[in-house]
Amino acid sequence: MNIAAIHYHFGDKERLYLECVKHAHCRHGMTSFDWPAETSPREKLSVVVTHMLTTMLATDQPEWHLELLVRELARPTAACRVLVEQFISPMFAQLLAIVGELMPVETPLLLRQQATFSVVAQCLLYRYHRPIGQLLIGEQQFQRLLDVDAVSSQIISFSLGGIQRCGVDSFAETAAEATS
After folding, report:
1. DSSP letters spanning the chain
2. pTM of the predicted model as reported, rounded to 2 decimal places
3. Which end of the chain has less neighbouring CB within 10 Å, N or C?
4. What is the 3-state secondary structure (H, E, C) of 8-39?
């Protein structure tokens, strides 16, 4: 591509790179969920996890998207900050609110954040560690794991158990510390 064209359309190479990273990460656009009042936290979690997995496991994404995002995760640039501020942070806030609904009201923010990161990490595992998964259990077996509904159901079930247990354990520890 002609350098003058880059400057005309993007201003400079850094802006071009930022737009490539945004395109690779956000090609499906930002999703904001508006929940009817009667929607349970479990239903909300199910919708968000299924949406994340559907986006992450889409097979029509060019390989350079994954390579660029992995590079950005390994060596963050200014593009990473923009991605977090504009796209990842709003989605994380929505998921954090849902996880908060699933835990006792008095659950410390740190525990809610940890539980939220755990949900996200489970989803990311299937996207970013696909080559490792294929090597561990074979390509055909790993492909069978990638059914969005099945993976979503497993992540939700596992997360709900962990979230419920996290609240119980943390409050038991807090109560034990208070009485000693």
Report:
1. --HHHHHHHHSSHHHHHHHHHHHHHHTT--------TT--HHHHHHHHHHHHHHHHT-TTS-HHHHHHHHHHHHS--HHHHHHIIIIIHHHHHHHHHHHHHHS-TT--HHHHHHHHHHHHHHHHHHHHTHHHHHHHH-HHHHHHHT-HHHHHHHHHHHHHHHHHHHHHHHHHHHHHHHH-
2. 0.78
3. C
4. HHHCCHHHHHHHHHHHHHHCCCCCCCCCCCCC
Amino acid occupying residue 145:
L
- Dump pLDDT digits (tens) for 69-125: 778 878 888 888 888 888 889 889 999 999 999 999 889 999 999 999 999 999 988
Q: Which of 52, 77, 86, 79 is nearest to 155 (CA)?
A: 52
Task: Specify the pLDDT at position 48.
Answer: 94
* CATH assignment of 3-179, among 1.10.760.10, 1.20.81.30, 3.40.50.300, 1.10.357.10: 1.10.357.10
Q: Would you state the torsion angle of the CA atoms of residues 153, 90, 86, 46, taken in this order, to the nearest 10 degrees? A: 10
